[in-house]
Specification:
The complex is a heterotetramer. By secondary structure, chain A is of the alpha/beta class. Chain A is built from ten helices and twelve strands. Chain A has an eight-stranded mixed sheet with strand order 6-7-8-3-9-10-12-11, sandwiched between helices. Chain A starts with 5 loop residues before the first strand and ends with a helix. By secondary structure, chain C is an alpha/beta fold. Helix content of chain C is 31%, strand content 22%. In chain C, a hairpin with a 2-residue loop joins β4 and β5. Classes of the chains: A alpha/beta, B mainly alpha, C alpha/beta, D mainly alpha. At the B-D interface, α1, α6, α7, α8 and α10 of B face α4, α5, α8, α9 and α10 of D.
């Protein structure tokens, strides 16, 4: 078996919330990410979906080392990185890069494009300036930007072009994994397709692996093989796109996919309505976290916290009432 | 709201502690207090006695504690020049200063807000231009100079208004208006930009879509929202004003704490300076606190936590 | 036309809007000759990419535009021409007969006033309601949009409410005076999928229940397919294609519409290459002669670059602005 | 289409507005007001008609040249000791400029470093600095000046110390807030992912983006510093005679209101014009650089 490029096990990230003024006892804790596990095989695209506040951004931040992990393991190409020393993180980060949503705030406005792209190389300090310039020229070519783009500033480019610059920068240290956090949400539909095509082509060309974070289910379905649905800091269902999108087992995943806008007026599906507001990660419900909004909730859901288990449909879902796969189905 | 109040109280307390420490340190830096507390021909032994009596032989933090204790009782010692309790002297002068700055505060706030609203509503017209020029002028001309010009014009030349002293209400007009000018300019500029800022808000667009009359949008919604940031700086404006009285009192011969302190400064009358600074600091901090608390009345996001 | 009713609620003819660009004072031709109509209980989607003039066209109906804006054409509504009405008269129509909602319900309400107060404003202003009658209507409205315990909700401030609740409050304000037309400008852009679906459903329900004519401005073809009956595709200020939603989704006639529909990832095999539209839209301050889409059009012929294409009509009320629209 | 690897080159958005309007949009009023101050400030001694400190008891309180009794030798008249007012104003320009610029620069340096450290690192550093800024904000400036005056007496040092102590907090406050928001920007996060050191992030990503704010603040503060200097000199804690400064000249002229109105008038006018010039210039800069700042 080949070693997966990224293996996340039981990742947790808690923040201390600001306590009331004369608060006694333990400080309240925001459970932004609360036990997330997934695996990305080398060369594949894995999609993480969920709505705002579900913890996907925090997951990204911990994976990039921008936040310290509370507990759990992050294994990159077989090596544990979460407790690595500074040198270890540096090495890891040269193999993992990111592209963020907003093409306006992700490029330093007062830096020339070539320096933005070259920054990971400059900080590594291993290349001469001439080599760096050559590499930048190569990268501009790869992402489809004109040669003279390097001498210009970000404000001279359109949104789609900026996202190309951001991708070129992500590629510059020759990473193996690229984390794409809503990479096309800020772009117009026609530009969106260009960027998605570019990402696909780069994956083929360099054998990259992607972790794609998005709330746009169409895009995730288009790009990914495997996906995971997050709700309130947890993964509630995971499996292949075909399994999870076409036959979701967890009630939240069902509701989420039923809310997807139809590609054609003839394909309008009945929507599963969620009641009530999303609970705060400061004080998540006992038992199943989704129970306060679940359309099929039972009393027992408040007591037992469901784990991700193999369902008959092939995906793994965290719901007590999702039809389980029998032992032989699992073995098969 | 409770938490907000506690935070503000905490800040007020810290401010007072810091200022008291500053005063204490400066009093020690400027020389051995013994020098002016003991007779000039005192012997070493007598000096030591005085030191012991005043606690000056104790560690510095004990001395500070004594000092705070005395200050809390209103004991700053006697004025070196007048040989009367400094605290009393300052207290006597305080009403004049408060009167002056309070009137200036009211005038500058009301006029400033009105002018700011007007300028914002008439944006890019000559009215806006004139008001903005007036504001930047108000922030550029030194108050003592404006005061002197006012004396020259209204006092010496036209002889309309008294220019010196504090006898009747007419004596207040020139000093309070001069004092108000700078603050009024700041309030006006802030109000103007806050009003313009609210204009771009989504809820204003929605109000227009609801067909709410423009006057109601402006005076009910935009003005109240614009007042939130204005209110936030009124406390700072007030300390500017109280500070400004020092200079205005000199120009107009106003018998307030400010003039007393400047005189004390020129006479190196340290107890008087200490008492004056402490009392002014306390009143400023208190009024600041009041202004901060009134914030909650306007903004429900603070009132209801 | 496509309307089932003989008399549309609103009918727009040859609408032109020009604006002054603040940056360089250039004149922007934001809307260039737009025609459409919406009937009772019908929903029109105005769709296009950023800067195509779709919002300007919608806002021009009630003339909520910057002062520099110039509006030409005819806007027939309620027996008058809104294009020539005074701002005062328009104000009495806004919120009364034509209601509007915008992008994000979270910021649509003034944070310093209670929900009840803001719901009362149009009722007081347009219907002269007061006291008991006002209160009864407020409660009735909140119930109509599905808010439980309306009495307590009325006394709360926007920051005390969840996003879903605010959506419904905004909906209640919009229907407060029983309007005939509701304009929703990018109503779901800032929202999550489930919130978006909920909001669209609410709009659909309100439109059906009260027989509203609904105009939805959006950049998302999915929104159009979800709730619209008719669609108007805009590009560079022009209506490039117009017609019933099904007809256009089944057989788009304009190359731009075709490209828009094709670039939705759903339309192709997962992982396959998505069709793209090359280039960028033209600068609205310097529109080229001929068809504005010519520079990006895969079907461009010489004529497109010099002569403006005429509208080509098809069966069922579909029409497209293209020289080659009737080619298959 | 296989526009993937070699996709179209989108047209770059049109650049900045044309250069044509640039000359017209310069703040000419401010430049006209500031030019003499800067020229006098730099080459003052070369332009004296008379030595500013030479007492000439033959020509006391001479009115300006255009009034009856004035003489062309003393264009703006003389003071009670017969010293030439214009020469003294020029000398005052030098003093004001040195103090204002020097004080503001030192304050800016301290404040920017403190603000960046406070906003970027947070934690204890931030708590301490924020608390100090808070205390400064809620105290009238004059109290600090009086305390400093009480501690070290009058003179140039008092003025400089006051300006630095009063102004550093303004920089710290504004820069801290900006740094806090810059810190969360995508490019700072990505710089961390690119293994950039704190020093690199602070100097290459944060500082360059604070530049506009700093420039605007410095400009506006120079005006305020001139005002503060004048006020301090006016209450007698600033520049001591026989040296001179504008504030001191107003103070001295005040005694001769009835007989020599030009003495306080022209020196005050000089202060007002200079401060007005810097304020207008600062406002223009703020708009031109589009930095968001409260107008305080």
């Amino acid at each position: 078996m080949t070693i997966p490029i990224l293996e996340v096990r039981d990742l947790k990230k808690y923040y201390a919330a600001s306590a009331p003024f004369f608060h006694r006892g333990e400080r309240p804790v925001v459970r932004a990410v609360d036990g997330v596990s997934f695996t990305i095989p080398e060369g594949e695209t894995f999609g993480l979906i969920g709505e705002s506040g579900c913890g996907k951004t925090t997951t990204v931040r911990t994976l990039l080392g921008l936040e310290k992990v509370t507990s759990g393991t992050i294994r990159f190409a077989g090596e544990e990185v979460q407790d690595a020393d500074q040198a270890g993180w540096r090495r890891y980060r040269s193999s993992v890069q990111a592209v963020f949503q907003d093409p306006y705030s992700s490029l330093s406005p007062r830096m020339r494009v070539w320096e933005i792209i070259a920054e990971p190389l400059i900080t590594a300090g291993k290349m001469s300036k001439a080599d760096i310039k050559t590499r930048v020229a190569e990268l501009l070519e790869v992402v489809g930007l004109p040669n003279d783009a390097g001498e210009r500033f970000p404000h001279e480019f359109s949104g789609g072009q900026r996202q190309r610059v951001a991708i070129a920068r992500g590629l510059s240290p020759q990473p193996r994994l690229l984390i794409l956090d809503e990479p096309v949400s800020a772009l117009d539909v026609s530009i969106r397709a260009q960027i998605l095509n570019l990402l696909q082509a780069l994956q083929d060309k360099f054998g990259l692996s992607y972790l794609l974070i998005s709330h746009d289910l169409d895009i995730v379905a288009h790009m990914c093989r495997n996906i995971a649905v997050m709700y309130l800091g947890r993964i509630v269902e995971t499996g292949t796109v075909a399994q999870v999108r076409d036959n979701p087992q967890h009630p939240y995943a069902q509701a989420l996919f039923s809310a997807v806008l139809p590609p054609h007026p003839d394909k309008i599906k009945p929507r599963i309505r969620l009641t009530g507001p999303q609970p705060s990660p400061l004080n998540p419900p006992s038992g199943c976290r989704f129970r306060t909004r679940c359309p099929v909730v039972q009393p027992i859901c408040a007591e037992i916290e469901p784990a991700l288990e193999q369902t008959r449909a092939g995906s793994r879902a965290a719901c007590l009432f999702a039809p389980r796969a029998s032992q032989e189905e699992i073995d098969r | 709201m409770g938490r907000y109040i506690l935070k503000r109280l905490w800040r007020a307390l810290i401010t007072l502690i810091v200022i008291s420490m500053l005063i204490f340190v400066i009093a020690r830096v400027t020389g051995d207090p013994i020098a002016y507390l003991a007779p000039e021909d005192a012997s070493e032994q007598e000096l030591a006695q005085v030191r012991a009596r005043l606690g000056l032989d104790k560690p510095i933090y004990v001395q500070y504690a004594f000092y705070v204790g005395d200050a809390l009782r209103g004991d700053f010692g006697n004025s070196l020049r007048y040989n009367r309790p400094a605290f009393e002297m300052v207290l006597q002068r305080l009403p004049a200063t408060i009167q002056l700055s309070l009137i200036a505060f009211i005038v500058s706030t009301i006029l400033g807000i009105m002018m700011g609203v007007l300028a914002a509503l008439r944006r890019d017209t000559w009215i806006d231009g004139a008001l903005r020029l007036l504001a930047v002028l108000g922030q550029s001309a030194p108050s003592f100079w404006i005061g002197i010009l006012a004396i020259m014009i209204f006092g010496v030349h036209l002889q309309w208004l008294p220019t010196s002293g504090r006898m009747g209400p007419e004596y207040l007009i020139l000093p309070s208006l001069t004092l108000a000018l700078f603050s009024m300019a700041s309030v006006m500029r802030l109000t103007r930009s806050a009003m313009l800022e609210t204009q771009t808000q989504e809820y204003v667009k929605f109000l227009r879509a609801k067909g709410v009359p423009e006057s109601q949008i402006i005076f009910k919604h935009m003005l109240r929202n614009a007042l939130v940031p204005v209110l936030a700086v009124l406390g700072i404006q007030l300390s500017h004003l109280v500070g400004g009285t020092v200079i205005i009192e000199i120009v107009f011969n106003w018998p307030g704490v400010g003039r007393l302190m400047v005189e004390a400064l020129l006479n190196s009358d340290l107890p008087l300076i200490q008492a004056g600074v402490m009392l002014i600091a306390i009143s400023v901090v208190l009024v600041n606190l009041l202004v901060d608390l009134s914030y909650g009345l306007v903004d429900p996001r603070i009132r209801i936590e | 036309m496509t309307d089932t009713n003989a008399q549309p609620v609103i009918r727009v003819e040859d609408l032109y809007v020009s604006l002054r660009r603040r940056r360089d004072g250039a004149t922007i031709r934001a809307v260039n000759g737009v025609n459409f109509s919406v009937g009772r209980g019908r929903t029109l989607g105005i769709v296009g990419e950023s800067g195509c003039g779709k919002s300007t066209a919608a806002m021009a109906l009630v003339r909520l535009l910057p002062k520099s804006a110039e509006v030409r054409g005819a806007i027939h509504f309620d027996g008058r021409d809104l294009a020539t009405e005074s701002q005062g008269a328009l104000r009495r129509i806004r919120g009364r007969k034509i209601a509007m909602i915008f992008q994000d319900p979270m910021v649509a309400l003034d944070p310093l006033f209670t929900v009840g107060d803001q719901l009362a404003e149009p009722l007081r202003e347009h219907l002269d309601l007061d006291g008991e009658a006002l209160h009864a209507r407020q409660v009735e409205l909140l119930q109509a949009v599905g808010i439980s315990s309306p009495e307590t909700r009325l006394k709360q401030y926007p920051h005390q409410m969840s996003g879903g609740m605010l959506q419904r409050i905004v909906g209640a304000i919009a229907i407060a005076c029983n309007p005939e037309l509701l304009i929703a400008d990018e109503p779901t852009t800032a929202l999550d999928p489930t919130a978006q679906a909920g909001y669209l459903e609410l709009l659909e329900r309100l439109s059906e229940t009260y027989g509203l004519a609904l105009i939805v401005v959006t950049h998302d073809m999915g929104v159009v397919s979800r709730i619209c009956h008719d669609v108007m595709v805009m590009y560079a200020g022009q209506t490039v294609e117009y017609g019933p939603v099904r007809a256009i989704f089944d057989q788009p006639r304009h190359p731009y519409t075709q490209a828009l529909l094709a670039s939705i990832p759903h339309a192709v095999e997962p992982g396959a290459c998505l069709p793209t539209i090359e280039g960028q839209p033209p600068d609205l301050a310097a529109l080229p002669p001929g068809c504005p889409f010519a520079a990006r059009c895969p079907k461009v012929v010489d004529r497109c670059r010099t002569e403006a294409p005429p509208p080509v009509e098809f069966a069922g009320g579909q029409r497209a602005l293209c020289w080659r629209a009737d080619e298959r | 289409m296989n526009g993937a690897i070699a996709p179209t080159r989108e047209r770059a958005s049109p650049g900045r507005p044309s250069r044509k309007g640039k000359w017209r949009s310069l703040p000419w009023l401010a430049i006209i007001m500031l030019a003499p101050v800067i020229i006098f400030g730099i080459c003052g001694p070369l332009l004296y008609l008379h030595d500013p400190t030479t007492i000439d008891l033959l020509n006391p309180q001479k009115p300006p040249a255009w009034l009856e009794g004035g003489s062309a030798a003393f264009p703006l008249g003389t003071d009670q000791f017969g010293r030439d007012l214009l020469s003294r104003l020029i000398e005052g320009a030098r003093v004001s400029l040195i103090i204002a610029l020097g004080g503001v620069m030192v304050a800016a340096l301290i404040g920017i470093v403190a603000g960046m450290a406070s906003g970027y690192f947070g934690g204890l550093v931030d708590s301490l600095i924020s608390q100090a800024v808070d205390v400064k904000m809620s105290l009238p400036a004059i109290l600090l000046i009086i305390l400093i005056g009480a501690a070290i007496g009058g003179g140039m040092t008092t003025v400089l110390a006051s300006i630095v102590l009063l102004f550093w907090a303004d920089y710290a406050r504004v820069i801290r807030a900006e740094t806090l928001s810059l810190r969360e920007r995508g490019y700072v996060q990505l710089a961390k992912v690119a293994n950039a050191s704190h020093i690199r992030i602070l100097t290459r990503h944060i500082l360059p983006n604070l530049f506009g704010t700093c420039i605007v603040l410095v400009t506006l503060q120079v005006g305020r510093a001139i005002l503060i200097e004048a006020s301090i000199s006016f209450i007698g804690l600033g520049i001591q005679p026989p040296a001179t400064a504008w504030g001191l000249m107003v103070y001295e002229g005040r005694a001769y209101l009835a007989t020599a109105w030009w003495l306080p008038t022209f020196s005050g006018l000089a202060i007002t014009m200079t401060v007005l010039g810097t304020n207008l210039f600062g406002d223009w800069l703020r708009d031109a650089l589009d930095t968001r700042q409260s107008s305080l």
